[in-house]
Design brief:
The complex is a heterotrimer of chains A (294), B (258) and C (347). With 294 residues, chain A is mainly alpha-helical. Chain A is 70% helix and 2% strand. The longest helix of chain A has 31 residues. With 258 residues, chain B is of the alpha/beta class. A 6-stranded mixed β-sheet of chain B has the order 6-7-8-3-9-10, sandwiched between helices. In chain B, strands 2-1-4-5 form a 4-stranded antiparallel β-sheet, covered by helices on one side. Chain B is globular, with a radius of gyration of 19 Å. Chain C is mainly alpha-helical and 347 residues long. In chain C, the strands form 2 sheets. Chain C has a two-stranded antiparallel ribbon with strand order 1-4. In chain C, strands 2-3 form a two-stranded antiparallel ribbon. In chain C, helix 3 packs parallel to helix 8, helix 5 packs antiparallel against helix 11 and helix 13 runs antiparallel to helix 14. Chains in contact: A-B, A-C, B-C.
Chain lengths: 294, 258, 347
């Protein structure tokens, strides 16, 4: 029983981080209809930014944290302005491939700048594990979860109440209508990319703090796809829920099936779940089916 | 003789009722026009006949056979061809390929013979080319543009290519959604002439939706008026024009704008 | 200059190679392909074989993704299935190479249909992610189904032979690769002259109105999946017989992305584009390697930058082509041809 609780707790903790990254992904998708295959690389770059500020430049933790967010926003902005703005109206395959190309560039650049050597942060939190009842959680997991949830809350409030959030939702609902209401649709695209990049970078920072960083950290970003498909590409609440489901499924599968199944079942399990869901709900659990018109 | 009949058709999306208990009969070899204000449900009727929408209630009979449950491609193979309000040509293909595409349902070439392009597959393609050139491209006077990509054409010509593609389906019934919308006077006249020729020379049955009342009065044999998803009147163009409900719902509305 | 190209029959107008000039250049190309192996060294022949194999796979992906519009991130997995099928058939049953080739294709096509069948209900992005899942799951099976695939050690394959004639080096294998490429390219070109090819494009452009044109969407999407994975399987079979070993590392997600990059850079939906793209994306990394080799004479550490530089260049190529030349090399080639057709009277 305590093993089960521990796996669940770890699943929830990791799931919270997935939720945050998926949220950034869905923000971009909702506002611009673009699937960002470079999400994992945004995470990786975010982690390296943090490493640079904290370790290489020796800045204080909080300042480094703020600078990471600023740099991530800048990265999102540059990517949107320099590349994706030119892709408006192109077929889906082209837009997907542009983000894949971008991810390759980011991986290469990261290796050129920071080399492929393994890097890790100095301990940021007290090392002692957190004990809740019978369950013991590693402190990096626990604090990562707390930060991720705080960020998710801030994003959700922003989206719901702030002026820019309302404008973004309007843009997501109907671009033409939003445009005619005087919303600058193009700047909404930029804002979405900046916010999406911040969410991914924070996620990367948390994951980097747990497991260290390497240029191929972005591979973890693939797990985002089961998350967002579970939740439906256009649902923020779904993304958060999907994050938890995938985190839990992953840990339970890793914990219980490890002895019976070969290989890295933890990485495989979310994709198996994904396939099962798509078989029965081709638009995900919470996604909207489009009504076609002629 | 009734070639195509719609019986008690009802359609809704979520809570929104789009059609309620619409019935109509299309006599063979005639032109039936469906008119009504925007949003009355005209295109939805065509979409149900073509199989793109599944009605919750009612039947569609073609040559006395119930086709309500058939998939759109099966209906196309039976002889129902369609043109669209917002042109639905394949923009990446040439005019010729777009028209040839219409012939899809009665061609026989399969995957393997297509890969080999040998014997029957080759003969079939060449026969198709000849038929398309002589029966359709000549008739619609589009020789000059047949090798151009569709995206390069003016709107009126695109509508004509769409008609050509529908004819290549060797249809018995032609479902046309606003064939002259957005055309200038000359193009409108050409299109009206083509539609009449198709009926008279080829004996096709035509169901069309149109807003241009002059065209309706000139070419249609029979008119059905719909409003708010219901049939409110039907008859010859003259009868419909004089019908009080129609004047209130549709013509009157136009008149007040003028 | 080449004008005044009149045809007197529809058959002449429907032909793929419509004029004497085109036939002349095509003949020249065949001669060049035949002479090449006798002049080229082992390295060039090695590259030529790899390029040919890539062309077969890229033509397959371009039929599915470029023409029929169904995005696949799992193409490498199907090539892997072909490679493993061939390796298993030859090592366990001792089947001859020429029989393995179509069987590898059929086995990949079988799995392609299994992945493709649910795609009927999915659109665009969801399908794309479903194929990603297929890639991940097949990769896992390659790695972990030890009894069948040999796990991470993979399967070693003896040199293939045709009628007692062993294809043990690059030179001999070239004479298998090139005919297969020619057959595949010709068949693909043919397909797009018939209703099947037209139906694919119709599905890509507007799949719902395609159905009203009498096209059975389900059947044709499955055709596209089957054909595309068949060609991937054939490419995989060629690959394993050429390299003589297959391991899970040979068919990762990145390889699927590389195939997508080929058809993007070459030209979506164009058979010629698949050829250009496969050549280009095979040669560029090699050029980069040679360039760094030269630099390393001056600064010895240069080779350490090879892998990240290749990643950057690979990404840049995709982005730059998509932004500046979305129709790829095939479109550039068409412009060059048009220029010379009217030359010297281009105005």
């Amino acid at each position: 029983m305590s093993i089960f609780l521990e796996l669940m707790a770890n699943g929830v903790a990791v799931g919270g981080v997935y939720a945050l990254i998926a949220l950034g992904f869905v923000l971009i998708y909702k506002a611009t209809s673009i699937i960002n295959f470079a999400t994992g690389e945004f995470m990786m770059i975010g982690a390296y930014f943090f490493y640079t500020f904290l370790v290489l430049l020796g800045l204080p933790v909080v300042l480094s944290f703020i600078l990471v967010m600023a740099c991530a926003a800048l990265l999102g902005l540059v990517v949107e302005r320099a590349i994706l703005r030119h892709m408006l109206g192109q077929p889906t395959i082209s837009i997907i491939m542009v983000t894949i190309g971008l991810s390759s560039i980011l991986v290469g650049l990261a290796e050129l700048i920071w080399t492929s050597d393994f890097k890790s942060f100095p301990p940021l939190f007290p090392r002692a594990p957190i004990v809740i009842g019978e369950v013991v959680i590693r402190s990096n997991f626990f604090w990562g979860f707390v930060i991720a949830m705080a960020a998710v809350a801030v994003f959700a409030l922003l989206f719901k109440y702030a002026k820019v959030g309302v404008a973004m939702r309007a843009t997501a609902g109907d671009q033409m209508a939003a445009f005619s209401m005087g919303i600058n649709v193009r700047s909404m695209f930029t804002v979405a990319w900046a916010l999406g990049a911040i969410a991914a970078a924070l996620g990367g920072l948390i994951i980097g703090n747990i497991g260290g960083i390497q240029p191929n950290l972005g591979h973890l970003g693939l797990t985002i796809f089961p998350v967002v498909i579970l939740g439906g590409l256009d649902s923020i609440a779904g993304a958060v829920l999907g994050g938890f489901i995938v985190g839990i499924v992953e840990n339970l599968a890793g914990g219980y099936l490890h002895d019976y199944v070969r290989g890295d079942i933890k990485e495989l399990a979310p994709f198996v779940v994904l396939v099962l869901i798509l078989l029965f709900k081709p638009y995900g659990l919470f996604g909207k089916e489009e009504i076609e018109r002629l | 003789m009734t070639l195509l009949a719609v019986e008690d058709l009802s359609l809704s999306f979520g809570g929104l009722r789009v059609l309620s208990e619409v019935s109509l009969e299309v006599p063979a070899g005639r032109i039936l026009a469906i008119i009504g204000p925007n949003g009355a449900g005209k295109t939805s009727i065509l979409n149900c006949i073509g199989g793109f929408y599944r009605p919750q209630q009612g039947r569609i009979l073609f040559q006395g056979r119930d086709i309500t449950r058939l998939s759109p491609d099966r209906r196309a193979a039976l002889g129902l061809a369609r043109t669209f309000q917002n042109i639905a040509l394949y923009r990446g293909m040439t005019v010729l390929d777009n028209i040839k595409l219409g012939a899809h349902a009665y061609l026989r070439t399969g995957l393997l013979s297509g890969l080999a392009y040998w014997g029957p597959a080759r003969r079939e393609e060449l026969a198709l080319r000849q038929e398309v050139e002589e029966e359709i491209i000549d008739f619609l006077e589009i020789e000059a543009i047949r090798k151009l990509p569709v995206a390069a054409l003016a709107y009126g010509l695109q509508k004509r290519v769409e008609l050509a593609r529908a004819l290549a389906m060797r249809p018995q019934v032609l479902l046309m959604d606003e064939p002259v919308a957005g055309m200038n006077a000359e193009e409108t006249e050409d299109m009206a002439r083509f539609i009449l020729d198709i009926k008279e020379e080829r004996g096709l049955t035509i169901v069309l939706i149109e807003h241009d009342m002059n065209v309706i009065m000139d070419i249609s044999d029979y008119v059905v008026v719909v409003n708010f998803g219901q049939k409110i009147a039907e008859g010859t163009p003259e009868q419909v024009q004089a019908h009080p409900e129609v004047i209130k719902a549709y013509l009157g509305q136009k008149g007040s704008q003028a | 200059m080449r004008i005044g190209d009149y045809k007197v029959s529809y058959a002449a107008d429907e032909a793929v190679f419509r004029s004497g000039t085109v036939r002349f250049w095509l003949g020249a190309l065949f001669v060049a392909l035949a002479v090449f192996p006798f002049l080229a060294g082992d390295y060039l022949l090695y590259m030529a074989n790899l390029t040919g194999i890539a062309i077969v796979a890229a033509v397959g992906l371009n039929i599915l993704t470029g023409a029929a519009g169904q995005i696949s991130l799992g193409h490498a997995a199907f090539a892997g299935i072909g490679a493993y099928t061939a390796a298993i058939l030859v090592t366990r049953l001792g089947l001859p190479f020429l029989l393995c080739l179509p069987l590898a294709g059929l086995s990949a096509a079988f799995f392609g249909v299994i992945v493709g069948a649910p795609s009927m209900r999915m659109k665009g992005l969801y399908l794309c992610i479903a194929t990603l899942a297929a890639q991940v799951i097949f990769e896992y099976l390659f790695k972990n189904w030890d009894g069948l695939t040999g796990g991470i050690r993979g399967i070693n394959v003896p040199p293939p032979s045709i009628l007692g004639f062993t294809l043990h080096n690059e030179f001999r294998f070239y004479f298998v690769t090139v005919p297969v490429v020619i057959i595949v390219v010709t068949a693909a070109r043919n397909l797009f002259r018939t209703r099947v090819g037209r139906a694919f494009i119709a599905i890509r452009d507007r799949d719902f109105s395609a159905e009203l044109m009498g096209i059975n969407l389900f059947r044709y999407k499955l055709y596209a999946f089957a054909l595309s994975s068949f060609l991937a399987g054939v490419a995989g079979c060629l690959w394993v017989n050429f390299i003589k070993i297959v391991t899970p590392e040979h068919f990762p997600l990145h390889e699927s992305i590389r195939y997508l990059a080929m058809i993007i850079v070459g030209g979506l939906g164009s058979v010629l584009g698949s050829i250009f793209g496969a050549i280009f994306m095979t040669i560029v990394p090699e050029v980069l390697k040679s360039a760094l080799n030269l630099v390393s004479a001056v600064s010895p550490k240069a080779m350490a930058f090879l892998s990240p530089l290749q990643a950057v260049v690979f990404g840049l190529l995709i982005v730059v082509f998509l932004v500046f030349e979305p129709h790829g090399l095939a479109e550039m080639w068409r412009r060059v041809k048009d220029y010379f057709r009217l030359w010297p009277f281009e105005h």
